[in-house]
Amino acid sequence: MKKIIIVSVLSLCVMLTSCSVLSGLADQIKGIANLANCEYSLNNVSNVSVAGVDVKKVAGGQIGVTDIAKLAASIMNKQIPLAMDFNVGIKNPTQTNAQLNTMDWMVNVQNTQLAQGTTKKSYTINAGRTSTVPLNVATDMYRIFSKDGIESLKGFAGSFKSDGTSSKVGIKVRPTLNVGNYALKTPNYITIEKNIGKKATNTSTVQTKKS
Q: Which of 7, 34, 51, 84 sees the fewest Cβ atoms within 10 Å?
C-alpha cells in the first residue's frame, strides 16, 4: 500500500508539472499570436553622429571648420563611422500581453544595407500599452561615400531632422520568440516608419527553427 501511495504521489507530481509546463507554453504561444496585432513605429532617432560629427550641428548650420576637417579626414582614412540609436515603439492594442524575446534588425543607408543585428534583451508588451525598444547602431559608410566625396557626405549629414530621422536612412525589424527549444520568427521583416504604425503581416504563421 505504501508503494502504491508513493507511486500515486509521484504520478500526480508529474501530471502537475506537465500541466504547469503546458500552461506556460500555451501562454508563450499566445504571446506569439499577439505579435501579429502589435503596431511598430519609429519614435525617434538619437545620438546620431557621422565621423564623430553631431548631425544636429550640420542640420542647424552650425558645422565648423573642425567638423568639415573630421569628415574629410574620415574619407582619406577610408573609414566613415555612423552611430545612431533607434527607438522603436511597439504598441499592443489587444487585451493580452505580447512577449518579445529578441528582434532582428537591418539598417539601410541610401538604399544600401549597411548594418544588421539582434537585440539581447527580452520585452513584455503589456496589453493596451506601448513599449520602446532601443536599437544601437554602429557601422561604416565608406563604401557608399568613397566616390562621392566630402560634399555628398555633408549633404547626408544635413539630411537629418530634429527628431534624428532621415529619408536616406531606413530600418526593418523582425520579431522573434523562443519557446522551449524552438526559435519562432515572423516570416517577414517589417519596415519601420516615423509616426506610422506597422502591423506584422502573417505572424500567425511563423518560421520554426530548433535551437
A: 7
